[in-house]
Design goal:
mainly alpha; Cytochrome Bc1 Complex, Chain D, domain 2; 2 domains; 2 strands; about 35% helix; about 5% strand; extended
Amino acid sequence: MRRYAASWLLMSSVLLATACADDSRDAGAPPVDPTYGLGRTPRPERLAAIDIDVDTTGHGLPAGSGTATQGAAVFAAQCASCHGARAEGVAPVPPLVGRTPAVGYDFANADRAPRTIGNYWPYATTVFDYVRRAMPLNTPGTLTANETYAVVAWLLHQNDIIAADAVLDATTLPAIRMPARGIFVPDDRQRGGPTFR
């Protein structure tokens, strides 16, 4: 009963404060501060630092480049402790490398099968975006653009998707055709297609 009384009291206070705020605007008072006196408008450089998403076409990729050879050293130093020396996975972290089960496997009905970069990820740009944003786990976002390109190159090479001497950059990375791209259903919710309604 006390819980309901406390909830009712809180809701009444919020409604009363809202009504008073509306009354003050009607009376010609200055508008209520939409931030309620909390926080501040972020500086453009702060927004730029967190606006790092990369889409499937490669829009948002930074300047820089990397190769699998360079990526081997970065992976060993920054990633192997969780993912294993060859990205084979260290429990509970799943493997990143492998084509087993084969591309086209019914992942939707077999939730225990490993989803690796080689058998499941549809876009190489998504691998870059994820590594750049979320890895290494203990210090996410600390890899430079060159280190991120290099790690992604190493991962793609380990999955037999690119050659060892391939150079990844903002032009070459989006051009990579991932083995599993064809198994994904296009999201056509805006057009109201048969798959999504």
